[in-house]
Amino acid sequence: FFSLSITGSGMIVYGAYLHKDEDIVDSAQKTAIFDTIAAMTAALVMLPAVFAYGMDPAAGPGLLFVTLPKILQDMVGGQIFAIILFTAVIFGGVTSLQNMFEVVAESIMHKFPKLKRGVVLIALCIICFGIGVNMEAITSWGPWMDFVSIYIIPIGAVIGAVSWFWVIKKEEIMDEINTGAAKKQGALWYFTGRYIYVPMALTLCIIALSMHISF
């Protein structure tokens, strides 16, 4: 949910509503650290179970709805943990959808200013729900999710990196980064982003596209 929503529109939405006293660099660092910890923790829980139950480790998002239920079935109090888990999954999906809806809703309201915000959001929810209930089975989501994670996310990362450090003027990006920052960033931060981060993002994108590997 996190990776897809951030790549899709999350940064645009949250950036637009960000307070001026927010430390962007510090928030980005904490987000990356905790997201990585969460992903590694999930992998340490799920992958051993995948091999223990003889499942396909490349099953993609279906693992969440196949592997974990099997684990919880064999646990004491597994039903309680299952309720907590899938409640958290629901909230994770809903909160990710919020920022995606926001971009579309704002675009529609900008084009048609007479429309009320509530009406637009309700219409979007109905449309997405109607499409969602008729989607293919969870076991068939793998190719689509692989396409997003292997192609869309790396390409989006490269476009963002190039835009930040090669398209936007240095003065503009430094002003935004240092607005509200407890520790001001300088030439070293910009040099690292332009000459280390951008080439690394481009390299990883090429690897992902050529070897069909998701990051």
Short description:
With 215 residues, this protein is an all-alpha fold.
Tags for this model:
8 helices, 78% helix, mainly alpha, 215 residues, 2 domains, single chain
Topology:
Blueprint: H1 2-16, H2 24-52, H3 62-73, H4 78-111, H5 117-133, H6 142-167, H7 170-178, H8 187-211
Largest sheet: none
Strand content: under 5%
Question: Which descriptor suits the 3D outline?
Answer: globular
Structural class: mainly alpha
Helix content: over 70%
| Computed Rg | 20 Å
Tally of strands: 0
The average pLDDT score comes to 80
- Our count of domains comes out at 2
End-to-end separation in angstroms reads: 14 Å
Q: List the total number of helices.
A: 8
Overview of the structural elements:
This protein has helices at residues 2-16, 24-52, 62-73, 78-111, 117-133, 142-167, 170-178, 187-211. The protein is globular and about 55 Å long. It is mainly alpha-helical and 215 residues long. It has eight helices and no strands. The chain has two domains: 1-139, no CATH class; 141-215, no CATH class.
